[in-house]
Write a structure and sequence with these properties.
Layout lengths: L1 H17 L3 E6 L10 E8 L5 E11 L2 E6 L2 E5 L2 E5 L8 E9 L7 E8 L5 E6 L16 H10 L7
Antiparallel strand pairs: 1-2, 2-6, 3-4, 3-7, 5-6, 7-8, 8-9
C-alpha cells in the first residue's frame, strides 16, 4: 500500500518540479490607478532559471488597434509590479506572460486583464499552459481572444 502511494505521488512531485510556469495577477487598490502608481502585482512560479516576464496593453485608438509594451518593475525573484502606462478614458486589455526557456520552449503562462474606460478592472482570466496541438509551439493568447475581450468592453476591433 505504501509503495502504491509513493508511486502515485511521484508524477505530482515531478509536475511541481518540472511543470509549466504559473502567474497570478492582483489589482492594487484603489482602482483606477493613477499614472506611475502600481496598478497590478504579478507573482510568478517557474522551474527554470531562464525565465522572462512580459506585459503589453492592447486597445483601439481612432479606430486602429494598438499594442504597447509595458514596463514591469521587479521587486524580487518572483514578484513584479506594473504601473498604469495606458491612456485613461478608453478600455484596454493587458496581456501578462511568464515564459520558461528561450521563446517559452519550456512553457508559457499568460493572464488577460480587462480594464473598462473608467479604469476599473472587469476581469482577469488565465490561459491553460500547454502547447499548440501536435506541436512544440507554446500556447499563447491569440489575437482573436484579445479582440473578444475588447468586444466585451464595448470596443470594436474591426479596422
Amino acid at each position: 500500500m505504501r509503495l502504491v502511494a509513493r508511486s502515485l505521488a511521484l508524477p505530482f512531485v515531478a509536475a511541481a518540479l518540472f511543470g509549466p510556469p504559473h502567474l497570478t495577477v492582483t489589482a492594487v487598490a484603489p482602482q483606477p490607478a493613477t499614472p506611475g502608481a502600481p496598478a497590478f502585482t504579478v507573482a510568478i512560479e517557474h522551474h527554470h532559471e531562464d525565465v522572462a516576464v512580459t506585459a503589453r496593453a492592447e486597445g483601439v485608438q481612432r479606430g486602429v488597434p494598438v499594442t504597447r509594451a509595458l514596463t514591469l518593475v521587479r521587486r524580487d525573484s518572483t514578484h513584479y509590479t506594473v504601473a498604469r502606462q495606458w491612456d485613461a478614458g478608453t478600455p484596454w486589455v493587458l496581456v501578462l506572460a511568464v515564459e520558461q526557456g528561450e521563446g517559452g520552449r519550456h512553457g508559457v503562462a499568460e493572464a488577460v486583464v480587462s480594464i473598462d474606460a473608467r479604469g476599473a478592472v472587469q476581469g482577469i482570466t488565465y490561459t491553460t499552459p500547454g502547447f499548440v496541438d501536435g506541436t512544440k509551439e507554446p500556447r499563447r493568447v491569440t489575437r482573436r481572444e484579445v479582440q473578444a475581450a475588447l468586444a466585451k468592453l464595448g470596443v470594436s476591433t474591426a479596422g
